[in-house]
Amino acid sequence: MKKNKILSLAIVAALSASLVACGNSSSGSSVAEGTDEIKAANSGEVIELTNVSYDPTRELYAAYNEVFAKHYQEEFGQTVEVTQSHGGSGKQALEVANGLEADVVTLALEGDVQVVADAGLIDDGFTSEFDLDSSPYTSTIVFLVRSGNPKNIYDWNDLIREDVGVITPNPKTSGGAMWNYLAAWYYFEQQGQSEDEILDSIKKLYANVVVLDSGARGATTSFVENKQGDVLIAWENEAFLSLQEYPGEYEIVVPSVSILCQPTVAVVDEVAAKHGTADVAKEYLSYLYSDEAQEIEAKNFYRPSTKAIYDKYVFSSDSNTITEVPADGKWINDNVNLTDINHFGGWAEARATHFADGANFDSIYEQ
């Protein structure tokens, strides 16, 4: 299967002489009852699955795809090859809506998956197909600053100072950038500002933006590798990956308030039916909730949804600054006031108010 791919992961489990691979499955059929997947196994084919995701999940799915392929081989006796595509979440959603054939999407927010659903490719009710509104892991928004925090950046109000250069992606193309914007909005709201005052504060923040990249990973590259700006507004996992990759060069600052980010997963029903991959696609997303996958998510600095596993990674600290990845693996800071998308009326209302053409973002940011 040839695709316009940003990242391709071909993961094939080892087969014994008596066990061969399988191909496409029939949507809605039982694997154990002689479906096309079993028939394909007899012809030596593999199941090819495409996951279109967003920027910061590259490392997560590189690890997960390997584990899932092993799980599926052991459970169903079939080989799965997973192809990954990564980019700004909003842009990825539009790519799928416009013809990029994804069997599953694992995007930064429900609103981006809705774009694919609105194109007629995902059935209604996708947020109810899997547990916790089809959000197997969560994240939040933090700041990444240079070692020693030379600009003394500790909260959102510091990002509107004239001496601070900000790096954040573009909400028009990046789901993570929408979370960034809404977290900032919530902070200024909590300061008692009126809507006009909030708009003015947000305008000052974006006036300080040095580079408005199309996606979260590009923004990280601008800050970490290209040394632009004084602070990166980042997904929590992106910030921790930077600490891990560049020890001693950066620090994470956890602001006083932020937002609970809920990436959403869904089977792209129309495409999965066409490819005959509905069964494996559903299993691929269901297994994200398994203990094995939840541990992988936590180790890649996503907040797991299973409470017992989540609690293993929580630490206590009076400081809102993290200078290194904790040696004991406990990295989750629970000492932060998190709002969620419901505070903004859900994604449909948030998009209409803040991110649609002519809405608040367009009014405060001059291209």
Q: What does this 3D model show about the protein?
A:
The chain has 367 residues and is of the alpha/beta class. The chain folds into two domains: 167 residues, D-Maltodextrin-Binding Protein, domain 2, CATH 3.40.190; 165 residues, 3-Layer(aba) Sandwich (D-Maltodextrin-Binding Protein, domain 2), CATH 3.40.190. 39% of the residues lie in helices and 16% in strands. The protein has 15 helices and 17 strands. It has a six-stranded mixed sheet. It has a five-stranded mixed sheet with strand order 1-3-2-4-12, sandwiched between helices. Strands 5-13 form a two-stranded antiparallel sheet. Helix 2 runs antiparallel to helix 12. It is globular. The N terminus is likely disordered.
